[in-house]
């Protein structure tokens, strides 16, 4: 098992070891058998890819605007938002481009974006919505926009620790590129 997966699994183990009393969230997503549960009840996972949520100016205009959008998603049956931490690809997607990444070159986190991500996850939680977080983008990797091995490990460890108290959060491990 590579180091990134070990760090993520360790982070998830630690997160699951914390009791709900220490949690910021009121909605806790868990796995039971081959399905998901939220707060101990079956959870029918219906998601949408909102890749650019961290970088979308309209969505992040203010707290009330963000809640309005999340509420609208929920009213249309969407209960999971898939968000990318890295959106710095050169493909011309909306809101993508240079610097649109949660990570500095050394693997440390950009505080403003971490704060925004925490706000998004908290706002999603208030509407009963789960966030599925994609840490890195293959589209960026393919054009040599990437962190080195050690900074990548630092980034994964840091974001895992930073988001530890959120219980309405899933890390999308299966999307991550692994050449090691």
Entry keywords:
180 residues, alpha/beta, four-stranded parallel β-sheet, three-stranded antiparallel β-sheet, 5 helices, 7 strands, 34% helix
Notes on the protein architecture:
This protein has 180 residues and is α/β, with parallel strands linked by helices. 34% of the residues lie in helices and 14% in strands. The chain contains 5 helices and 7 strands, in the order H-E-E-E-E-H-E-H-E-H-H-E. It has helices at 3-17, 63-75, 111-126, 138-141, 149-162; strands at residues 29-32, 35-38, 41-42, 47-49, 80-84, 130-134, 169-171. Strands 4-5-6-7 form a 4-stranded parallel sheet, covered by helices on one side. Strands 1-2-3 form a 3-stranded antiparallel sheet, with no helix packed on it. Helix 1 (3-17) runs parallel beside helix 5 (149-162) and helix 2 (63-75) packs across helix 3 (111-126).
Instruction: Give the mean pLDDT.
Output: 86
Alpha plus pi helix count: 5
Q: What fraction, in percent, of the residue positions are helical?
A: 25-40%
Q: What is the overall silhouette?
A: globular
Gyration radius, rounded? 16 Å
Computed structural class: alpha/beta
Strand order of the main beta sheet, please? 4-5-6-7
């Amino acid at each position: 098992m590579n180091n990134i997966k070990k760090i993520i699994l360790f982070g998830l183990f630690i997160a699951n070891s914390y009791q709900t009393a220490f949690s910021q969230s009121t909605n806790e997503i868990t796995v039971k058998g081959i399905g998901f549960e939220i707060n101990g009840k079956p959870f029918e996972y219906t998601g949408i890819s909102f890749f650019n949520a961290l970088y979308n100016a309209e969505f992040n205009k203010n707290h009330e605007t963000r809640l309005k959008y999340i509420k609208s998603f929920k009213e249309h049956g969407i209960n999971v938002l898939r968000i990318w931490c890295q959106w710095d690809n050169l493909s011309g997607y909306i809101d993508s481009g240079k610097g649109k990444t949660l990570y500095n070159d050394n693997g440390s986190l950009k505080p403003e974006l971490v704060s925004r991500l925490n706000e998004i996850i908290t706002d999603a939680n208030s509407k009963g919505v789960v966030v599925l977080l994609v840490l890195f983008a293959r589209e960026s990797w393919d054009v040599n926009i990437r962190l080195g091995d050690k900074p990548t490990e630092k980034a994964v460890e840091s974001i895992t620790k930073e988001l530890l108290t959120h219980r309405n959060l899933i890390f999308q491990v299966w999307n991550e590129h692994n050449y090691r």
